[in-house]
Amino acid sequence: SQQGEEDPQALSIQEGENATMNCSYKTSINNLQWYRQNSGRGLVHLILIRSNEREKHSGRLRVTLDTSKKSSSLLITASRAADTASYFCATAPPGNTGKLIFGQGTTLQVKP
Amino acid sequence: EAGVTQSPTHLIKTRGQQATLRCSPISGHTSVYWYQQALGLGLQFLLWYDEGEERNRGNFPPRFSGRQFPNYSSELNVNALELEDSALYLCASSLVGGNTGELFFGEGSRLTVL
DSSP secondary-structure letter at B95? Predict the structure, then answer.
C-alpha cells in the first residue's frame, strides 16, 4: 500500500504565484524525497531531506519535514509555466531496502 | 554524460506473452531499480539490483523477474502477461545503493497488454 498521501491532488495557479504541496506518511523514514514527472515521462529528482533535517532549499524550492506529524511540504515560489507537471513525494523506509514508497502525486498546472 | 536509457519506448503484447524491457544505468552507477506506474495504482517498487545481485523485490508475483549484467545494465522480464500489467515501467539508477540517495530515472517503457 502507498505510504505517502499527497494533498491537494490537483492545483491550478497563475504564473508568478507560489504553489504548496503537502505529503503525509505513516511510518518512520530514513529520508523523504520529492520528484517531478512531466506527462507520462521519467521522474526528475528535486530534493532530498533527511529525517534529522527540518528544512531545505534548492533554488525556488523549499521543503519542510515534520517527523512528529509525519508530514512534508514542497513550496515552489514564483511559479513558471514550465513548472507544470506532477509532483511526487517518496519516503525511504528505515534500513537499506532500496525501496522508495511514492505518494499518488499532485498535478500542478501553471497558467501563463 | 548520458542519462539512464530504456528500451523499447513502447511495447504492445497480448495476454499470455512475455515482455522484456531493458535499461542502461548512468556510467559509474552500480545500482538499478525497477518501478511500475500503472493507472490508478501509482508508482510501485518492483526490483533492486546491485553489483549483479537482486537485493530486494516488491510485492509482485514471481512472473516478474529480471537480472543485472556485468556492465550493470539490467533487463526486466514479465512472463504470462495479464491485462493489468499494462503500465509505464521505469528504471532508475543510483551512485549509492539503497534508498539513502537520489534516483536518476529513465524515460520509461510503456507496455500495453491486449
Answer: S
Q: Which residue of A has its CA nearest to B98?
A: A98
Which residues of A fall within a CB distance of 8 Å from B66? none
| Contacts A–B by Cβ distance under 8 A | 70
pLDDT greater than 60 at residue A1: no
Q: What is the pLDDT of residue A3?
A: 59
CA-CA distance, A66 to B28, in Å (whole number)? 34
Calpha distance B91→B72 (Å, rounded):
12
Instruction: Dump pLDDT digits (tens) for A17-62.
Output: 999 999 999 989 999 999 999 987 899 999 999 999 999 999 999 9
Whether the Cβ atoms of residue A100 and residue B45 lie closer than 8 Å to each other = yes
* Residue in A closest to B46 by C-alpha: A99
Instruction: Check if B98 contacts A (Cβ < 8 Å).
Output: yes
